[in-house]
Design a protein that fits this description.
It contains one helix and six strands. The termini are far apart.
């Protein structure tokens, strides 16, 4: 389970780096972090260059053989075209499930 929490944190950092524009002068406007013991976590961050991210994770089936973490969150950034893009997501036993107005949607079967 510790691996999943660490993986989630690293994913958020990598995601922030991959959508970065020239953020060398960006300032952190808000940073909230709350570890809820072994049951979960939540955080929110916002920077002066228009980026924001928030996420919350909870442990499901604590102590059981099928113990897992369920994560939900969102991130947003200003693209090179000046438009703010927002992605909301869920990551659980069904995988990573992003949604956003700019993301393609799979055709229904």
């Amino acid at each position: 389970m510790k691996f999943v929490i660490v993986f989630s944190a690293l994913f958020a950092v990598a995601l922030s780096a991959s959508i970065a524009t020239d953020s060398s002068h960006a300032e952190t406007l808000r940073y909230d972090n709350d570890n809820i013991g072994v049951e979960g976590y939540k955080y929110a961050v916002e920077t002066s260059d228009g980026k924001a991210a928030s996420e919350q994770g909870i442990v499901k089936n604590v102590g059981a053989e099928n113990e897992a973490i369920a994560v939900q969150g969102q991130y947003s950034y200003v693209g090179p075209d000046g438009v703010t893009y927002t992605v909301t997501y869920i990551a659980d036993e069904n995988g990573f499930q992003p949604q956003g107005a700019h993301l393609p949607v799979a055709p229904s079967l």
